[in-house]
Amino acid sequence: MMNWLWRLFVATILFAVSDATPSSIACSSAPTVTIDSGEVVGTTTKLAGATITVDQYLGIPFAVSPTRFAPPVKPTPWKSPYQATKYGPACIQQFNYLEASRNTLIAWFNTPLPPAGENEDCLNLNVYVPATPGKIKTVMTWIYDIIIVTPNYRANVFGFPNSPELPLAKRNVGFWDQRIAGAASIDNLVLTHPKDPPFRAAIMESGQSSLYVNPTNAPTSWLALTAALNCTQTHPHSNLTCLRSVNASIIKSTAEHLTLPFRPVADNVTMHRYPEKARLNRDIAPVPILTGMNANEATIITLGQSNATAFLAPVLGNDTALIQEIVDTYTITPPARELAAILTDLLFTCPASIVANDSHASGFPTWQYYFNTSFPNTQLFPGAEVYHYSEIPIVWGTYPRENATAYEKALSRYMQSAWATFARNPTGGPGWEALHRIASLGSGGILNTPIDSDMIGRNCFLFGPYYKELGFFA
Ligand SMILES: *[C@@H]1O[C@H](CO)[C@@H](O)[C@H](O)[C@H]1NC(C)=O
Ligand SMILES: *[C@@H]1O[C@H](CO)[C@@H](O)[C@H](O)[C@H]1NC(C)=O
Ligand SMILES: *[C@@H]1O[C@H](CO)[C@@H](O)[C@H](O)[C@H]1NC(C)=O
Ligand SMILES: *[C@@H]1O[C@H](CO)[C@@H](O)[C@H](O)[C@H]1NC(C)=O
Ligand SMILES: *[C@@H]1O[C@H](CO)[C@@H](O)[C@H](O)[C@H]1NC(C)=O
Ligand SMILES: *[C@@H]1O[C@H](CO)[C@@H](O)[C@H](O)[C@H]1NC(C)=O
Ligand SMILES: *[C@@H]1O[C@H](CO)[C@@H](O)[C@H](O)[C@H]1NC(C)=O
Ligand SMILES: *[C@@H]1O[C@H](CO)[C@@H](O)[C@H](O)[C@H]1NC(C)=O
Ligand SMILES: *[C@@H]1O[C@H](CO)[C@@H](O)[C@H](O)[C@H]1NC(C)=O
């Protein structure tokens, strides 16, 4: 369960915004750029749904093929031009059993399979640049004058092994991948780059990473995995050496069958123990943020379940008094909707609102949205409503064109424009009022209805003790 949650949060698409000067030589030959590692040759193309020409550079290595469970190492410069013409492998994904729920998740989030498959050798990124230098042009259907970079990073046991044999600050190798690549898990990068951040603004959709730290740093999953693979018996002097020699497919499959969650440890380098304390002390990257959440984030987490008491018990450490208070406070019917509403607040609305409020209170320009509409052609299942992820096809402009409504297209254009406006000039905002006003996007068929902060997350006070225990704040 928790691993599934963690995967969702980390996978949420986020943007760090910085500047780059396109230096492509636009002529009939293939586009070419020179980076630290050498020359890179791409292709000029049109992306699906777009009318504008784009130079794309695919699968550029930003590190050498990684040693399993070790931080990334910068690539050795290449001598002949790197042909960045096809996607590199994706990192290995974990889809836990049982079979039925595993297949559903794969169908939702891993179909079709990545073009170059999954491999441990996955530290590559893709760059999309407007083909015409200088003049502002559309890069993808959803964004205007912005170079898009999409890096891979290691996840699950390959990214967050938490082996006691590794120094604490070298255990979150997935975060080190992100640092060397320069993007992803944006809130965490904001929190851990107080000086000279390599970005000038951040957009965080549906969450922040701070809440999902392993509060005790206990290596529970690592121990279970090494035991299951007999490393503890065969290599008592180094379970790490043993696990480095096991076939990656077997590691993946064992973690999936045992449903082992691998989460980052709080090392105070790549991940803070008390992130909101750091934010309130202004000991973070001093950048504007755009953050927000969806109205029914948790429907895909609670699908098929309706007993809030039973669901919350393992999450809230069997605190029956607190669980009763929560259930009594939410008076939503039927029970499945109530459970989804509780989880939406607990895991998304409240943490993201606290981050936004703290960012604003610390004097960083802060804008917030509340995505509050759903469309028939992006519904995953009946009752999914405004589920986690459902804004992404709208922001990226990748929603199915089949059965798309005029309103869906208009909202997509509006959100793309807001995101791009913010990216171009972060201190100017996305085009609506800063906190404590929030843009309610799509409510009642209206693109943007300005609301007050106190309109959402009224029940957040209930979760304070839980957040505190996790170390969300000190
Ligand atoms: C681990 O050891 C047990 C008992 O000796 C054996 O049944 C099992 O197949 C071994 N597992 C692996 C992955 O080697
Ligand atoms: C390997 O795992 C076993 C069982 O958890 C433990 O007793 C042993 O200390 C570990 N070895 C090292 C070097 O950490
Ligand atoms: C790992 O195991 C998989 C599945 O059994 C197999 O296809 C693959 O060839 C193995 N890889 C190596 C490097 O042995
Ligand atoms: C991280 O910092 C907190 C105080 O903010 C401290 O309590 C904790 O022990 C530190 N952890 C490590 C691993 O240094
Ligand atoms: C919900 O779960 C609790 C505890 O797990 C149980 O006592 C209760 O009977 C369940 N409620 C329903 C309606 O099944
Ligand atoms: C909650 O209670 C269950 C059943 O009594 C127990 O197995 C579990 O360890 C408890 N969890 C916590 C976090 O206390
Ligand atoms: C579009 O609508 C038709 C008719 O309702 C339906 O059969 C089809 O599955 C829909 N396609 C999508 C992508 O929603
Ligand atoms: C979200 O949309 C629903 C249905 O249109 C509306 O009743 C509700 O007030 C909206 N919520 C917010 C916070 O805008
Ligand atoms: C954020 O601040 C606003 C304005 O003070 C407040 O109404 C709201 O409850 C706060 N949100 C949370 C989650 O504390």
UniProtKB/TrEMBL annotation:
Carboxylesterase type B domain segment(s): 30-144, 181-425
Signal peptide start-end: 1-20
Xref: Pfam families: COesterase (PF00135)
InterPro entries reported in the protein's UniProt record: AB_hydrolase_fold (IPR029058), AChE-related_enzymes (IPR050654), CarbesteraseB (IPR002018)
Key words of the record: Hydrolase, Signal
Xref: SUPFAM superfamilies: alpha/beta-Hydrolases
Gene Ontology MF term list: carboxylic ester hydrolase activity
PANTHER family: ACETYLCHOLINESTERASE, CARBOXYLIC ESTER HYDROLASE
Similarity section: Belongs to the type-B carboxylesterase/lipase family.
Protein name as annotated: Alpha/beta-hydrolase
